[in-house]
Amino acid sequence: MKIRVTSAALSRLAENDAVNKALDAVNGRADRFTISNYSMVCRVADQAEARLKVLPKADRVGASVVYTPAGPEANAYKYCAVSTQIVLARTSGGWWLTDVIRVDVYPRQAECLRVHVTGEQADAIRDRAVADLVVTA
């Protein structure tokens, strides 16, 4: 599966429908702790893009993000709840949804947004982070 995801594409019904169908197929009847629509996926892509803002857009290609929503807030849940995990990949054309997975989340489990970068991207981020620092002996 590879479906383009951008906030600007919210009006593109074909992509919107494709993402919603993929989410519905994985979620089944579950709806409380899941990613249930295209706009939620776009929000994750926007958050990932914000984390990569230290890199020029051309250097963001190859990054990916894995996102899982938070679990139930109440301790009354004794068992896990059904949730959705999505995987997005960054290309020169923007973010693409590459995988939708059914997962379990546990009470009080925080949401998880992990941005994966290549070694070159990590080096570039480190270089930019210390660019304004002067090392003294």
Topology at a glance:
Elements: E1 3-5, H1 13-27, H2 38-51, E2 64-68, E3 81-91, E4 94-105, E5 112-116, H3 119-129
Antiparallel strand pairs: 1-4, 2-3, 2-5, 3-4
What does this molecule look like?
The chain is of the alpha+beta class and 137 residues long. It has one domain (3-129). Helices cover 29% and strands 26% of the residues. It contains three helices and five strands. It is flat, with a radius of gyration of 17 Å. It starts with a strand and ends in an 8-residue tail after the last helix. The relative contact order is 0.21.
Q: Could you write a compact summary of the structure shown?
A:
With 137 residues, the protein is of the alpha+beta class. It has three helices and five strands, in the order E-H-H-E-E-E-E-H. The chain has one domain.
Overall pLDDT level? 88
User: What is the topology, as strand order, of the major beta sheet?
Assistant: 1-4-3-2-5
- By DSSP (H or I, 4+ residues per run), the number of helices equals 3
**Biggest β-sheet description:** 5 strands, antiparallel
Structural class label: alpha+beta
Element string (H = helix, E = strand): EHHEEEEH
In percent, how helical is the residue content?
25-40%
Structurally, the number of domains stands at 1
Fraction of residues in β-strands = 25-35%
What are the low-pLDDT stretches, counting only 5+ consecutive residues below 50?
Answer: none
Question: Kindly, what is the distance between the CA atoms of the first and last residues, rounded to a whole number of angstroms?
Answer: 53 Å
Tally of strands:
5
What is the overall silhouette?
flat
Rounded to an integer in angstroms, the radius of gyration calculated over CA atoms is 17 Å
